[in-house]
Amino acid sequence: MSYLGPEGVIAKKNEYFVPCINHFYKNPPQFVKGEMQYLFDSTGKKYLDFFAGVSVMNCGHSNPAIIDPVIEQIHDLQHVCNIYLTENGVNLAEALAEVTPGNLKRSFFVNSGTEANEGALLMAQLYTGAHEFIGLDLGLHGRTQLTMSLTGIGMWRTTDTPNGGIHFARNPYFYRDGRRDENQTQEEFEDECIADVERLIRRRTSGKIAAMIVEPIQGNAGIVTPTPHYFQKLKALLDQHGILLIVDEVQTGFARTGKMFAIENFGVVPDILTVAKALGNGFPIGAYITTDEIAAAFTRPSASTLGGNPVSAMAGLSVLRYIKEAGLMENAIARGTQLREGLLELAKKHPLIGDVRGLGLMLGAEMVTDRKTLAPAADQVDEILEKMKDRGIIVGKNGENRNVMAMQPPLVVTEADVRFFLDNLDDVLTEVK
Ligand code: PMP
Asked: Which atom of ligand 1 is nearest to the CA of 276?
């Protein structure tokens, strides 16, 4: 097989892509093959993948348990559109109803996380008859006009004419915002954030608010992880005001945090849950899932041409089956604990690691050049990513300041993989100034 190679890919990208799509690394590899938790580049070099295509490949790359049934489905029937009857989509909706918390039961299938959120926001407006929305500072929900308008990270807000009726609440980002008062606990800080939501509702809205949308763990914000206290108080406050809670599980869903959905760690049941990424394990699918009562408000005709078609729905069915059969929730907890403990050990030795946070195998290490001022170590994170890649390990980064190293591997990683990752990170942190 001959490949373009990294230079060839970059040359075509520069010539033919809209120039808004950036890639990681000074010297990026061209990936040509995947095998469970491993990737291979065009030179045949092997990599341990600790980012899973941004939390997508939870079941591993080209896993036969996922791709074989999908390939069979492609041979049998690819697409007729949901104006005709096929069965994978309804079977997947039924399977999702079984694994989602509370009374969440009815699904609307789409092709991406953005679309899932866009649909959930419309659903909330139809049910409540209200039109304003609340998001979180540093939340990220997509690329369309409405989801971008609800995204609270400047670098992802390209539109300069965002939708009106949208408000942002203070982010419960304890490490960066809460530690100003050294005696304050995370829960006390979160009480202030809840008070901010209450103030926002009272002072800055018409009172007619359809929904608040939040990620249970904020991926792009830098794996910001509130406590159960925050979500429980938030849900109670929203209930008081008749505001729906939309939980965006696009990045956190499907066993990554040790539960099927991250919000289950916090003891709260959302009114609408959105999913994408790992549901398809590399095939395009997304959905919003809600209750009988809320869904009943959406009776005008609607359809998505490709949403939940037989092929992507077969991927979803195979993912749900594999998560159970392979014990991915259990592995996310076991390997996540090993990784977290290893990172905390490294933090004792390497002052660059300011904070370690997250749940299961969705972990972030926030890098700072000074543990008092929390000056973000963005250049150092780039250097770490480059050196890890040279050693055959792919790891991610995110955060408003691009200084959070993100570890979100396929959930099939082994004890030896995590050890290999930690040993190499130890060496790299010693090299990075
Ligand atoms: N919500 C969250 C939390 C995300 O992380 C992302 C993508 N990174 C999206 C929504 C948008 O998903 P998509 O790219 O599939 O449209």
From this structure: 15
Q: Which residue owns the Cα nearest ligand 1 atom 10?
A: 141
Strands 31-35, 38-41: pairing is antiparallel
C-alpha distances (whole Å) from 40 to each of 10, 28, 116, 177, 198 are 18, 13, 32, 40, 50
**pLDDT, tens digit, for every residue of 347-356?**
999 999 999 9
What is the per-residue pLDDT for 433?
A: 79
pTM of the complete model: 0.98
Q: Is 55 in the pocket of ligand 1 (CB under 6 A)?
A: no
- Per-residue model confidence as pLDDT tens digits over 35-76: 999 999 999 999 999 999 999 999 999 999 999 999 999 999
CA distance 330 to 82: 36
* Strand order across the 244-248 sheet: 106-110, 286-290, 272-275, 244-248, 209-214, 132-136, 166-169
**Is there an atom of ligand 1 within 6 Å of 258 CB?**
no
Instruction: Specify the pairing of strand 244-248 against strand 209-214.
Output: parallel
CA of 357 to the centre of ligand 1 (A): 20
Contact 50, 58 (CB under 8 A): no
Q: What is the enclosing helix (H) or strand (E) of 113? A: helix 113-128
Q: How far is the CA of 97 from the centre of ligand 1 (A)?
A: 22
By C-alpha distance, which of 354, 357, 363 is closest to 407?
A: 363
3-state class (DSSP) for residue 305? coil
